[in-house]
Amino acid sequence: MRSPRRAAEEPPSCPFDPGDPDDPATVADPYPWYRSLRAQAPVTYVPSHDLWLVSRHGDVVEVLNSPDRFSSRLGMGAVHRLHAPQSVDYRIGAPGVRVLIATDPPEHTRLRRAVIAPFRRSAIVRMVPRIERIAAELVGNLMANAERGTADICRDLAAPLPVLVLAELLGVPTGMRDEFREWASVITDDLDLAGAADTRLGRGYDMFRYFYAEIRRRRTEPSDDLLSVVAGTDAAGLTDHEVMAFCAFLLVAGIETTTNLFTNLVDVLVRRPALRQRLWSTPDLADAVVEEALRFDTSVQGLWRATVAQDRLGGVVLPAGARLLILFGSANRDERAFADPDAFDPQRSPNPHLAFGYGHHRCLGAGLAKVELVAALQALVGATGGLAARGPFVRRNSLVLRGFAAQPVTVWPR
């Protein structure tokens, strides 16, 4: 998460010490730290990272609603590892590469319109039966592994489900799901504290070569899949290089975030026996449980922005070019926006969470992600009599992308 200090500038003075965002205890459970930030310094500077943290719901919404003041294009440059010589330069936020998450209107609007068709509600509704079948098959595999004492929610359900769904959406063979998953991890390792291993660079180039060949083929042999839609984005002014970057972005947005959301939801259920019992006895609660899980422990805890000029936010003066990390995870627990925010309440209403962002940058695939999460939860509840942890769950080492890498469980038939 660290970014290089702008050597020519004096760091702003800040009387509040926010501590180290990369501290293992904070990464494991950031919510007490968020509470302290909201109470004492809702917009605060972290000198060691040359980064401003924005933690209150209202301030985060203001940033998201003001792309003319707080730029995604400039802000994603805070992910400094993207610019390291050994990094693959088509990753999110790389210099000279435009993807949805790192552009501002009107450019962002033009790119979004070019690819929105497969994510419209009507298109997603048509996919629901297939998604439900995939989820049911994966739960069957999970139960078979449970009989052998090897079931893992992340490996058996949360990870493969979005891979298979995205493979179908893109129109590529489902047999490539392992490659898809590994390619997605190449990109998201940039947001993990440990960073990507050099040995993964070859896999990143494999991804580049695959998408390049497929996009070229779709331009002469188009079909009704998402890759054909992406192949046509040259009309929106994307270069071939940027089309490759957009494909990489789809892997992260379509796979990693959904996987992490479901593993966070399972952790909530394991830790709350009363909620788990209530859900298993009333499966119709699945939609409401998913919605509250999105707020309670979201997978994307924050993203970057940067000030276009000197600005003021939450009563704090920000210099031009200041890099901001807007904390969705903190905003979703803000006492000013949610009653009893640390309670998990499926009946919460209203629930203005920011799990999928807000405004111009609201997640393009939010509807698809919800369908996948609900389908997976309904399949799990419908086929099993319950679940319990079989061993310690292993969190991924990232503050920004929050989820689990391993979740050994026991499940049993109804």
TrEMBL record:
Q: Which UniProt keywords apply?
A: Heme, Iron, Metal-binding, Monooxygenase, Oxidoreductase
- Region feature (Disordered): 1-25
Q: Which Gene3D superfamilies match?
A: Cytochrome P450 (1.10.630.10)
Tell whether ATP-binding is among the UniProt keywords. Answer: no
InterPro entries for this protein? Cyt_P450, Cyt_P450_B, Cyt_P450_CS, Cyt_P450_sf
Q: Does the keyword Oxidoreductase apply?
A: yes
Query: Which Pfam families does this UniProt record tie to the protein?
Result: p450
Q: Known PANTHER family for this protein?
A: BIOTIN BIOSYNTHESIS CYTOCHROME P450, P450, PUTATIVE (EUROFUNG)-RELATED
**Family designation:** Belongs to the cytochrome P450 family.
In its UniProt entry, what is this protein called? Answer: Cytochrome P450
